[in-house]
Design goal:
heterodimer; A: 623 residues; alpha/beta; Pyruvate-ferredoxin Oxidoreductase, domain 3; Rossmann fold; 8-stranded mixed beta sheet; B: 349 residues; 3-stranded antiparallel beta sheet; 12 helices; globular
């Protein structure tokens, strides 16, 4: 028998009985700054182009070059796009972490690794594929500097061959990755081909994983939440954008700059219909956004935890003086600098109540890239309707990782510019009182600077003010104004995005979640149903303040698990507060918490709920 | 029978757009009697009246402190905004970005500018937005009852006898250094010079900074203070005599050769600087800086137009914005068409 035939036979023997198709995760461990992002994008997109649902998560350090970084690609024929806890296929390119990476694998997993690292002796229960990447890279290019980058492209070829990824789709993905740079395309393709060839000739397939064509990604897009939010802002008519760089929010404004350059320059005059300003700090970023909002622009800023802390004084001014602005908080791990490149939902309470005195804010909680787009627009409508700062609480996982979605629908809803009086309105009215509740909804009327009417002007201040916007320290003026602000907030309850209820007839147990936790919860519900026959109804919150739906949902459940990515059960605290007037309802609330900085996964959620359910049934038995 | 002919009521003086000085007044001041800030508010009122600027086209902004209260005391028919401490520059910047047709005036104090707000002050100057930035500089925190500020001179004394031992920040030097394109120093007790400098600032296309020594009659007007009326009157040394000719008045002033310098501003207005003791050219940045350094070393109180660059591109030009206020653009001009979204979506497949 020829060697080739022998290899083929061996391969078939291994694959046939236990093939795992389109349902596994690949983790690539590299060094930050080694160019692996391009390789990983090519790998992910090739699988996506084969019609297989994918998600890509970048676990990166707060560093430009030299520290370990991991990229996880999950392929899921069922369409699950949350993080998968187990790694099935490791590409170990980083000597610093290789041993630990290998130790943490589940039994039976496969490892492609740099041959010189000699990892195959570490464990007996894994499949090892040694590859002399450094040696192979020498065959691709003479340029020593480029070799490191190209070694990463070689693993695309190796993995592609081992997992049966369509060569043609890889080719197309390379072209997409390097756009019109012909030289880069050729060089990278050469590296990939070399990897493919090497795997074909020198490796024997011994793991069960493979990718096969499907039709589940037809017409879909791959996009990160920050880009989606930027698109939302543009189609929502943002005109003034002020920001200060901070991970993980910078890419939102950076992508917005690109989109605006392309689509928001006046065709006739060549002039910009927007101003984007990189501010000196977050204090100035929010200050400019509020100044612009006061003068009538749709203004926004984007930041993360530390920036929110700095903005707190100005946000109080925005709340009290009633000025619209949109603030994106792409949450990362705190407190303090925390883990700046890891994900969390740890700013819920802080953002909701930001600033001194009695303050509370409208917060939108997007769970998907679709909602980043949608809320990116809606936030401006709410800010202008309610004349107040509106927060969009995304997170690093949603904002910076790749998510699969249907193309966003073109918005049909016109802008809501809120209660703004024009010169003509003033001519009819004769006068106006800036902070008077004319309509009984707590929302006053405003005028914009520049309105051509002697009655238009008023004085805005962060100090105590009367209905006529005059300085006052009178107890009744202060209290009436604060009560009106509370009334305005009550009106907003009915206008913010309402929760989404996923019913499950006869289920006793409920889950409440929000934001990026949604995807792990969706998968965990299926796991609970399939594995434990536990049916769970699900309420996904989409905004603060909480709405009436919460009350009916909790009433309809025996036990409610609030799933969130922080230590202190922040949303659960708000929910308990909201339920405090309803006897017996608060006690139903339990928490499933995830706060190690990695995106939440379904298995952790399902396991925790099973454990807590066992506890609950023991308690019932005991009593 | 003799009839007494009634004389017509005296005509109130109106400006070129038919408004009277009263149309530019604000609420009564609540500051201490004799406060320098009130004198500045009066000159601001006068400058706007004389230039014939519509009050609705003006936005007044301020931070926190005695000085920052004053926007309520002039131009009652203009929108005003009393923001947070030291952060007027960002609010003012946002305002002018949203509506470039507004005349934006920011009023601040020495505490509001040179301490808590110095970061925003510095970056405002770098951008050169069309904003008039007035510092009502009295060397103390008035509203918190008389602590030293960062512009207090070395060795100056509080009423309590406490001596300032830290060097002052010279706001004009800082402004010239960082790119402000219209920098002046003046004195609340010199209304004639002040109004001309204010009118020049209001006609300038970039950021103008006016550092106006404005005595605090309650906490810093005693012997030993270097920001008192007496000290100011005794020490003020004018760089030149400042005159202002607005663009709408075609007056040609004849001066003896070499006795005056004219600076044309972008709207066609002119500043006429009549020579006094020294030859001084405020368009020369290096000269401006060495003059300021010399004055600070010698403890001189030089007033006048320290530096001007009427041509430097402002931030709105740099951003290449449309002519209309961004705030007023309709949805049709802000929401790109369906094809734009389709194109982006296609690129993500």
């Amino acid at each position: 028998m020829s060697t080739e035939a022998l290899v083929r036979e061996k391969r078939e023997r291994h694959i046939q009985p236990e093939a795992i198709v389109n349902d596994f995760s690949i983790q690539v461990a590299t060094i930050n700054g080694s160019g692996s992002q391009s390789s990983n994008n090519v790998l992910m997109r090739s699988i996506f182009r084969m019609g297989v649902p994918v998600s890509g998560k970048n676990l990166f350090p707060s560093n430009i070059a030299g520290l370990p970084t991991w990229f996880t690609i999950r392929a899921s024929k069922q369409g699950y796009i949350a993080r998968r806890k187990e790694v099935d296929f490791l590409v170990a390119m980083n000597p610093q972490t290789a041993r630990e990476d290998v130790e943490s694998l589940r039994p039976g997993a496969a490892v492609v690794y740099e041959q010189s690292l000699k990892l195959d002796g570490l464990r007996k229960d894994l499949v090892f594929y040694p590859v002399p990447f450094a040696e192979l890279a020498k065959q691709v290019t003479e340029e020593v500097k480029l070799r490191k980058l190209l070694a990463n492209m070689i693993y695309v070829g190796v993995v592609g061959q081992l997992l049966s990824i369509d060569k043609e789709e890889i080719k197309k993905s390379v072209v997409k990755q390097f756009q019109s740079k012909a030289k880069a395309i050729a060089l990278n393709q050469k590296a990939i081909d070399l990897g493919f060839e090497y795997a074909e000739q020198s490796l024997t397939k011994a793991d069960p994983l493979r990718v096969e064509h499907m039709d589940k990604t037809q017409g879909k897009v791959l996009i990160d939440g920050n880009a989606a939010g930027a698109l939302g802002a543009m189609f929502g008519g943002v005109t003034v954008v002020t920001w200060y760089p901070i991970t993980p929010s910078s890419s939102l404004c950076e992508q917005l700059i690109e989109y605006m350059k392309a689509y928001r320059v006046d065709k006739e005059t060549g002039k910009a219909t927007y101003a984007i300003v990189q501010a000196e700090d977050e204090l100035a970023a929010i200050g400019m956004a509020l100044g612009a909002g006061w003068a009538g622009a749709r203004s926004m800023t984007s930041t993360s935890g530390p920036g929110i802390s700095l903005m707190s004084e100005f946000v109080g001014l925005g709340y009290y003086a009633e000025i619209p602005a949109v603030i994106w908080n792409i949450q990362r791990v705190g407190p303090s600098t925390g883990l700046p490149t890891r994900t969390s939902q740890g700013d819920i309470l802080f953002t909701y109540l930001l600033s001194h005195g009695d303050t509370k804010h409208l917060c939108l909680l997007p769970a998907s890239v679709d909602e980043c787009f949608e809320f990116g627009m809606e936030a401006f409508n709410l800010a202008e309707r309610f004349q107040t700062p509106v927060f969009v609480l995304s997170d690093l996982d949603l904002g910076m990782n790749y998510w699969m979605a249907d193309p966003f629908p073109y918005p049909q809803k016109p802008f809501d510019r809120g209660k703004v009086l024009t010169a003509e309105d003033l001519e009819k009215l004769g006068s106006f009182a800036r902070y008077r509740d004319v309509d009984g909804d707590g929302i006053p009327y405003r005028t914009l600077p520049g309105t051509e009417h002697p009655a238009a002007a008023y004085f805005t201040r962060g100090s105590g003010h009367s209905e006529n916007a005059e300085y006052t320290e009178r107890p009744d003026d202060y209290q009436n104004n604060m009560d009106r602000l509370a009334r305005k907030f009550e009106t907003a309850r009915k206008h913010v995005p309402q929760p989404v209820l996923e019913e499950e007839p006869d289920a006793e147990v409920g889950i409440i979640a929000f934001g990026s936790s949604h995807w792990a919860v969706t998968e965990a519900r299926d796991q609970l149903k399939l594995e434990k026959n536990l049916k769970v109804r699900y309420l996904r919150l989409r905004a603060l303040p909480l709405t009436e739906t919460l009350h009916s949902f909790v009433r309809s459940c025996q036990r409610v698990y609030v799933v969130e990515q922080n230590r202190d059960a922040q949303m659960a605290q708000l929910i308990r507060l909201e339920l405090s007037q309803q006897p017996g309802q608060q006690d139903k609330i339990r928490s499933v918490l995830h706060y190690d900085g990695l995106p939440i996964d379904a298995r952790s959620v399902a396991d925790e709920i099973v454990a807590l359910e066992k506890k609950a049934s023991r308690k019932t038995e005991e009593s | 029978m003799a009839t007494v002919k009634e004389s017509p009521p005296p005509q109130k003086k109106v400006n070129r757009i038919g408004l009277t000085v009263a149309d530019y007044k604000g609420k009564p001041s609540t500051l201490c009697d004799g406060c320098g800030h009130d004198a500045i508010s009066s000159q601001l009122t006068k400058a706007f009246f004389e230039l014939g600027i519509q009050p609705y086209q003006v936005a007044k902004l301020s931070g926190i402190g005695c000085s920052s209260k004053t926007p309520a005391y002039f131009l009652g028919k203009s929108h005003g905004f009393n923001g947070v401490h030291g952060r007027m520059p960002s609010l003012a910047a946002g305002t002018v970005l949203a509506n470039r047709t507004l005349r934006v005036v920011g009023v601040s104090g020495d505490g509001d500018t040179a301490s808590i707000g110095i970061g925003q002050f510095v970056h405002l100057l770098r951008r050169n937005l069309p904003i008039v930035y007035i510092v009502e500089n009295n060397g103390v925190y008035g509203l918190t009852k008389g602590q030293f500020s960062a512009t207090s001179d070395l060795g100056s004394k509080l009423k309590t006898g406490v001596v300032n031992e830290l060097p002052p920040i010279d706001l004009c030097t800082l402004a010239v250094e960082l790119g402000a394109t219209y920098v002046a120093r003046s004195f609340a007790g010199d209304p004639k010079q002040l109004v001309a400098l204010l009118e020049g600032a209001l006609s300038h296309k970039g950021t103008s900074v006016l550092d106006i020594i404005s005595p605090c009659v309650t906490f810093n007007n005693h012997p030993g203070s270097t920001k008192s009326y007496t000290w100011g009157k005794e020490h003020e040394e004018m760089l030149h005599e400042v005159g202002f000719v607005p663009y709408f008045e075609q007056i040609n002033v004849d001066y003896e050769e070499g006795s005056a310098l004219e600076v044309a501003l972008h709207d066609g207005s002119r500043i006429v600087l009549k020579k006094l003791e020294r030859d001084y050219d405020p368009t020369d940045r290096t000269c401006a800086l060495s003059l300021l350094r010399e004055a600070s070393e010698k403890g001189q109180f030089l007033t006048g137009l320290v530096y001007v660059d009427p041509e430097r591109e402002n931030f709105l030009e740099l951003l290449d914005l449309v002519e209309e206020p961004l705030a007023l653009l309709p949805m049709e001009r802000l929401r790109p068409p369906q094809e734009a979204l389709d194109e982006v979506m296609e690129s993500l497949k």
